[in-house]
Write a structure and sequence with these properties.
Blueprint (H helix, E strand, L loop, with lengths): L9 E5 L36 E5 L2 E5 L3 E4 L2 H10 L3 E3 L1 H5 L9 H11 L5 E6 L14 E5 L5 H17 L12 E7 L2 E11 L4 E13 L2 E9 L9 H11 L1 E2 L10 H7 L5 H14 L4 H6 L15 H10 L10 E12 L5 H11 L1 E4 L10 E5 L5 H11 L3 E10 L1
Antiparallel strand pairs: 1-11, 2-3, 3-4, 4-12, 5-6, 6-7, 8-9, 9-10, 10-11, 13-15, 13-16, 14-15
Helix pairs in contact: 3-4, 6-7, 7-11
């Protein structure tokens, strides 16, 4: 029998999007649910392009100066597995929907209630979806719009119930879904409780939306978890800690003034610094290309060297790997790559990486060599996606290179 899995799923910042559709019925009275915090707000002149990055246990969102802290349990998992904190468009797109039990249903409800395309960061006590290992972890996401709380509550109230009713594993007949509205300090709450059943086990699930104004924007913290206990750290304590950590600092530039430091960290001997810098630069997307180019980064495709620097690979992934010219006698294989790992990294550890990302070691594994080994992708895996994931999440990987050929 599987245990209940606590899911605190989303932090959502909402800014700069057009008015949400599907208003509530004209005769619906929400006055009892709302407070003066919903006073009319002025619209910003334009929605800025948002860039998020992780700085130790803090997530910063530029240029709006928003920041919040990740709980200690999040950081404990990251130090060991490095797959539970996501920034940047591609990393977030990969965790938009759930995988397996509970996460699939939670994601369906949240994605129906609030727009995922505003997501700028995601994190959790363990990996999301099939990267998770238990039913008791807490997850977090962040988005940005400028709709007032009242409009967002109305949308949530309208969209969440039918999404819950449509879940394949929703045991509606066992217990009717329930919703609770309340006001807790500056946070407005709309919490939905419903039952999930997977044939041999199940339990009560909660999708807990918390919304407040912060500056000219609305912050919505949406937590997902089975209300049953059994955790060392209660979900309520994590919820309170995360909500209390939200703050606005002086607005910063999306160009990230410490870009030079991030680029330097790509070559650090410290694996954690390497992956933190990689994530931050990939999250900057095209804005990182010019600083990397000025630092001497080169495109590694379609031809290059097996002594590829991490800086060059990050630059190439941001710019896009170039295809092999038609009929070329030299280029690179699209179904494999080379890995250079730290001296203390074993073959068994790389095998486990392969299980995680979808590749298998091909040929010899030679410690201290460049590359240490080559890997072949499993069918259906995309080279650029796997390279991004390995560079962003594996501190024992120094760099990767393309598998070049020459006829």
């Amino acid at each position: 029998m599987k245990g209940l899995r606590t899911r605190v799923l989303c932090l959502i910042l909402l800014t700069g999007a057009p008015a949400l559709a599907d208003p509530p019925a004209a005769d619906e009275d929400l006055s009892a649910k709302l407070t003066p915090v919903d006073a009319p707000t002025t619209q910003p002149e334009a929605a800025p392009r948002l860039v998020s990055r992780q700085v130790e246990d803090r997530i910063e969102v530029a240029p709006i100066g928003l920041q919040f802290r990740l709980p200690p349990t999040f950081m404990t998992w990251q130090k060991q597995f490095h797959n539970n904190i996501h920034v940047g468009p591609e990393a977030l797109a990969a965790i938009r929907d759930g995988g397996g039990e509970w996460d699939t249903e939670y994601a369906a409800v949240v994605n129906a209630a609030l727009p995922f395309d505003r997501c700028v960061a995601a994190a959790g006590e363990e990996g999301w979806g099939r990267d998770g290992v238990s039913f008791t972890d807490v997850q977090l996401r962040v988005y940005v719009l400028d709709q007032p709380i009242k409009e967002l509550i109305e949308r949530i109230d309208k969209q969440a119930p039918p999404a819950i009713a449509g879940l394949a594993h929703a045991a509606v007949g066992r217990k009717a879904p329930a919703v609770v509205h309340s006001q807790e300090g500056e946070w407005s709450r709309a919490a939905f409780t419903f039952t999930l059943w997977y044939g041999d086990y199940g339990g009560e699930a909660m999708v807990d939306f918390r919304l407040r104004r912060l500056g000219p924007r609305t912050v919505a913290a949406v937590f997902m978890y089975p209300p049953a206990g059994g955790r060392r750290v209660a979900p309520a304590d994590i919820v309170k800690a995360v909500m209390a950590s939200f703050a606005l600092t002086e607005a910063v530039s999306t160009s990230q003034p410490d870009t030079a430091g991030l680029i330097d960290d790509l070559g650090s001997d410290d694996g954690d610094r390497r992956i933190a810098a990689t994530r931050a630069l990939l999250a900057m997307d095209k804005d990182a290309l010019e600083p990397l180019r000025k630092a001497g980064a080169k495109q590694v495709s379609p031809v290059g060297t097996i002594s590829t620097r991490r800086m060059d690979m990050v630059y190439s992934l941001l710019e896009g790997l170039r295809p092999n010219p038609h009929g070329a006698r030299a280029g690179y294989a699209s179904d494999g790559f080379g890995l250079r790992v730290d001296a203390g990294c074993t073959r068994e550890e790389v095998v486990r990486m392969g299980v995680k990302y979808g590749f298998a070691i091909q040929g010899q594994f030679t410690p201290n060599a460049c590359p240490t080994c080559y890997a072949k992708l499993q069918p259906g895996r995309k080279l650029a996606d796997v390279l991004r994931a390995v560079l962003s999440d594996e501190p024992k990987v120094i760099s990767v290179n393309l598998n070049y050929f020459e006829a």
